[in-house]
Design brief:
Largest sheet: 8 strands, mixed
Number of strands: 11
Radius of gyration: 18 Å
CATH topology: 2-enoyl-CoA Hydratase, Chain A, domain 1
Distance between the termini: 32 Å
Shape: globular
CATH architecture: Alpha-Beta Complex
CATH class: Alpha Beta
Order of helices and strands: EEEEHEHHEEHEEHHEHEHHH
Helix content: 40-55%
Strand order of the largest sheet: 1-2-3-4-5-6-8-11
Length: about 260
């Protein structure tokens, strides 16, 4: 991974992501290979390292995790699972994916600074769970959350069955996960899954302004407030272990190209 980093250790640029600061906001802009975090140890460590640096920075009050259009979507999801199936160590590939997701989600849930996730375009259900582990979520007006896991013979991932009921209740969460119907941006906002829907034009700058608006809260107060929500971390860890057990033994099925997702 070609990367250039500044002396402070946070600001950098690579083919995978760019990181920079903007008026109290630490930005991690993921540009490509989001699914490869699961299997590429170098990429995962690079991302986690930047998150940890942001957590220890005195100048960063809010962390903004910004992803490019549809890099979390169905096309890249299919490519990832195709690679799992074709890999000689496909089961290990799957285990790494599950472990990386679990580590990221637990990191977000225990992160002491405010975290904003910003996604756009096509987003599969695994990353819906991932962004629900952060404090605030903003999406583009053309965002669509889809649920292709059943087409691959898998249950939902990304702690979605754990986190989703905490936002909308268990009955609605079950309905969404069992029906597996796409959720449009307007529907996600109405359900309370996201905090703001942003127009496609000037998307990144609008996300920055949203995150900047959260920097007024002193970091110490933000950290103490977030600690009050950590009482169910053991329950989350237990859930993630169960998710790994349920997914691990499964043989991934690659659906036809034209299969409805």
């Amino acid at each position: 991974m070609d990367s250039k980093s500044t002396k402070d250790g946070f600001q950098s640029s690579s083919d995978f992501f760019d990181t920079y600061e903007y008026e109290g906001v630490g930005v991690i802009h993921v540009k490509s290979r989001a699914f490869d975090i699961a299997s590429d140890l170098q990429l995962k460590n690079a991302l986690f390292n930047k998150i940890n640096i942001a957590g220890g920075s005195s100048s960063i009050r809010v962390l903004l995790l910004l992803s490019d259009n549809s890099i979390l979507g169905e096309k890249h999801n299919r490519i990832f699972w195709n690679n799992v199936i074709e890999s000689y160590d496909g089961n290990m590939h799957l285990i790494r994916e599950v472990n990386a997701l679990s580590q990221y989600i637990e990191m977000m849930c225990s992160f002491r600074k405010i975290v904003v996730s910003a996604v756009r375009g096509s987003v599969v259900e695994t990353f819906l769970g991932v962004i629900l582990s952060t404090d605030f979520r903003v999406i583009s007006e053309d965002t669509v959350f889809s649920f292709p896991c059943r087409q691959f013979g898998l249950p939902p991932q990304g702690a979605l069955a754990f986190l989703l009921p905490r936002y909308i209740g268990i009955a609605k969460a079950k309905g969404i996960l069992l029906r597996a119907e796409p959720i449009l941006a307007s529907q996600a906002l109405a359900l309370g899954l996201v905090d703001k829907v942003i127009p496609n034009a000037n998307y990144e700058s609008s996300c920055l302004e949203f995150a900047k608006g959260l920097t007024a809260l002193p970091p110490e107060v933000a950290g103490l407030t977030k600690r009050l929500f950590e009482c169910d971390m053991k329950e989350l860890h237990t859930y993630l272990e169960l998710e790994a057990k349920l997914i691990g033994p499964h043989k991934v099925i690659l659906p036809p190209e034209d299969a409805p997702l």
